[in-house]
Design brief:
alpha/beta; Rossmann fold; 4 domains
Length: 714
């Protein structure tokens, strides 16, 4: 090509591509990545000493479940350990610290930001103690242990992943080591690799596995240490007296901040084009911690918290049942209908002040907190199981369409009216069920999993709720309740531009014309062009023969709201995000904590950091006995010993602050919204990334309560 604007034989594309600036601009390693890789998280003060020891902490009390005592006899009496400096180490202490070790590590469950820094912290501690120490990373989660599929983790590998999100270094998987056969395979792998210790980084189920593996490998002298990981934030440890020991699992803060940043962008969008309600479902199938943190980070107009809905009690329904001499179990916990009404109320109030747009945050696991849904599931599980047990064909084969299934349920409801001993499915159940959107009815009636359980994960929680919201908004629009408020200045301008006197038509059109509200609301009786004309004729501002003045019709049309929604799901993007300063630092020190527990002979412990809710200088590396955290829970239709998950405490300072701000953040008043800009995620420098807001508020609230109590005691 000889064109001066193109490339010639002496000036080829290859030469152009070889230029250093081109290579740098198109490299996989962005400038931001290179800077992040070079960041060194600060160390807790205890890790600055050359040697450490473990101190027993006896101020924490736990209830030891009898089943845990039975199944975990060798680790059940573990206590909380504090990692402390060893100021005067003996020669034995030094030899134990410097001993050559082989350590295995595995990621289990979904990714969470910061996992790579757990490995980095552990690797750095091992390398510092003895250059011959080896760390093996099991690939693809626990399957790597069972199949002896691993890599040896080197400094080069670690340096390529420092401070980065995801679990790309060794990948992850969801296999559980929960049978005798799997335990034997895991034991053989550990023995073959001559492991001193195995580190399991995971959530509640994974740390439960860690406890059972610690018991299984106890007599082999192989230590097992767990590390708390989950973006859901439902690994929180408190003792019987409510003392916080581990405030939150790693990954939670980053995921919440990633969601918050993206949702804040939607806040900017909706307040710019003022026509969409953005429905944001955030991950958290069991607990609503992420929704609460996002609510505090962004101040969306409406944020639902499942635990609060479950705590609701309908006193009127209870009283009616008492009069009838019965018990209404659906009075405990808010119903789906009530949830939809709650949302509709906010939407209507905002529209009245010209804000027919907004942002709603819904936790993924909301439906699990709604009592009537749980009742439906229990009843339908029974109906389907009974049908399958007494017929040659299964329920879903015999009733292939939703119409067929609904007709069968109606027959059962009729039977309940004719025979008062038949109560599995009554008329009230049928009425409530028929209020639900068809796709949700279909979901509730679909095939159960292999264990007969309803599959909540397949439900589109946000669309279920918003389907009811849209239906009710249509009814409110037909009744003239849901209307756009018209700015007084806009009304006057439109009328005057059309040559009409605003005051002449004002009282006929609006129910609040003479108020100082700033926004005018068209009368509820005006719900169509026909009723608009009837109202104007009745008010004698036009005659029956006259047409509606064009400016008046324009104002009416502006008052008719259009409810438009955009749906968003926040989950996988957040759990794969590069970690915040908080999670970078938290996880690196967790890796150091794991090393301290290993060199001091601990097993069956979960590495943790106490005082996460306080400033970094107050962080305290500890080991928590996993066996003490066990309780019996129904899993796969049978009671199983598992680590308990933490729900949002609606009596906590953080939730109380959130609840007190709810109406303010709805912003159903003239003026600006209250959206908060959390900004992008940071991993260095002074910023709010130092701690989750829920932790900050809980710490401030508890300190305030303590100071108040101390004053009263004086």
């Amino acid at each position: 090509m000889d064109d001066k604007k193109g490339f010639t034989k002496n000036n080829t594309m290859d030469d152009f591509l070889r230029q250093e600036d081109i290579q740098r601009a198109t490299s996989d390693a962005s400038w931001a990545l290179q800077e992040r890789l070079s960041f060194t998280p600060p160390l807790c003060d205890v890790f600055k000493a050359p040697y450490c020891r473990l101190e027993d902490v006896d101020r924490y009390a736990f209830h030891l479940h009898p089943e845990a005592k039975k199944e975990l006899p060798d680790i059940i009496n573990n206590v909380v350990h504090r990692v402390a400096k060893n100021e005067n180490p003996s020669e034995t202490d030094k030899e134990r610290h410097r001993k050559q070790r082989n350590v295995g590590i595995v990621f289990s469950g979904g990714p969470a930001p910061g996992g790579h820094n757990v490995i980095a912290g552990l690797y750095d501690a091992l390398a510092s103690a003895n250059e011959n120490n080896r760390i093996f990373g099991f690939l693809m989660g626990p399957d790597g242990i069972l199949e002896k599929n691993y890599i040896e983790i080197t400094g080069e590998i670690v340096n390529a992943y420092r401070n980065l999100g995801g679990f790309g270094m060794i990948k992850t998987g969801r296999t559980k080591i929960d049978s005798g056969t799997k335990m034997k395979k895991a034991r053989k792998t550990c023995l073959d690799l001559k492991l001193e210790a195995l580190v399991i980084v995971g959530g509640d189920d994974s740390n439960t596995n860690a406890a059972f593996l610690a018991q299984e490998l106890y007599n082999d002298g192989i230590q097992v240490i767990g590390v708390p990981k989950t973006i859901d934030g439902d690994i929180q440890v408190r003792d019987l007296n409510g003392n916080s020991i581990c405030a939150v699992s790693f990954g939670f803060h980053t995921a919440a901040r990633a969601f918050a940043h993206n949702i804040n962008n939607l806040c900017s969008d909706c307040s710019s084009d003022v026509k969409y309600w953005h429905i944001c479902k955030v991950m958290g199938r069991v607990a609503s911690h992420l929704a609460l943190e996002v609510g505090l980070q962004v101040h969306p107009n409406i944020t639902l918290i499942g635990e609060e809905l479950a705590d609701y009690i309908d006193e009127e329904r209870i009283e009616n049942a008492r009069k009838e001499g019965s018990m209404d179990y659906t009075a405990y916990g808010m119903t789906l209908r009530q949830v939809s009404r709650l949302i509709c109320d906010g939407i209507v109030r905002r529209a009245a002040v010209g804000k027919n747009y907004g942002v709603i945050v819904i936790p993924e696991g909301l439906l699990e907190f709604i009592n009537e849904i749980q009742v439906f599931i229990i009843k339908l599980n029974t109906i389907i199981a009974d049908y399958n047990a007494t017929h040659d064909t299964d329920f879903n084969t015999h009733f292939p369409t939703l119409k067929d299934k609904l007709e069968y349920l109606r027959q059962m409801a009729r039977m309940s009216r004719e025979n008062n001993t038949f109560f599995i499915w009554n008329t009230r159940d049928d009425d409530l069920f028929n209020v639900l959107p068809p796709f949700f009815q279909e979901g509730l009636l679909t095939e159960r999993d292999a264990h007969g359980n309803f599959q909540f994960s397949q439900m589109e929680t946000d669309r279920v709720v918003m389907g009811l919201v849209e239906d009710y908004l249509k009814r409110l629009m037909d009744r003239g309740v849901y209307k756009n408020g018209i700015k007084v200045e806009s009304y006057r301008h439109t009328m005057e531009e059309g040559g009409l006197n605003p005051d002449f038509y004002g009282n006929a059109l609006f129910k609040n014309y003479n108020s100082n509200d700033g926004f005018l609301l068209v009368k509820e009786s005006i719900v169509s062009i026909k009723t608009l004309k009837q109202t104007l004729v009745k008010a004698e501002v036009i005659s029956a023969k006259d047409d509606i003045p064009e400016p008046v019709e324009t104002i009416y049309k502006q008052s008719v709201p259009k409810f438009k929604t955009q749906y968003h799901f926040y989950g996988y993007d957040g759990r794969g995000n590069d970690p915040t300063w908080f999670d970078c630092t938290y996880t690196y020190n967790l890796g150091m904590t794991v090393f301290s527990l290993i060199v001091n002979g601990a097993t069956g412990q979960m590495a943790a950091i106490n005082n996460l809710e306080k400033d970094f200088q107050d962080w305290e590396p500890i080991g928590i006995p996993i066996g003490s955290l066990m309780h019996l829970e129904e899993r796969k239709s049978k009671l199983t010993l598992v680590m308990e998950r933490a729900l949002v405490d609606i009596n906590s300072p953080a939730f109380k602050v959130f609840a007190s701000k709810r109406d303010t953040w709805l912003a159903a008043t003239p003026g600006d919204d209250c959206y908060r800009r959390p900004g992008p995620i940071r991993y260095s420098g002074e910023s709010e990334d130092a701690r989750p807001i829920t932790l900050i508020l809980n710490d401030m609230g508890n300190s305030f309560i303590k100071k108040s109590y101390d004053k009263l005691s004086q």
